[in-house]
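Objective 1b. Sequence-to-structure analysis of YlaH-like protein.
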Amino acid sequence: MDWIQLASTYVPANPDQLTAFDSFRLWADHNRAWILFVQLIIVYYLGFATRIRMPILKTLLLYILLFAGALIFAILDVQLPVKSAMLVAIAILVVVKLRIKPEQTERK
């Protein structure tokens, strides 16, 4: 993942004395693909998974494809706010899930 680190977008104002925010931003830039991978898994299970348990090979293939998508998003994240958009998508899906839950319990 060194090629993603080379495209880091954050440069701290004082590299000698890093604040907690600077350290976090540098860490987030270094682990961009993994952060996006976790966010993609959360979005998949909140919005698209019809059942949680799948056969092992299908689950493995799903994770491989999600990681390939995370690599593509990591490349795009250098210029576009992909991580922020994923957080907004997660927030919207959580709100939708919370609104649908009481409605389903009323039907039963």
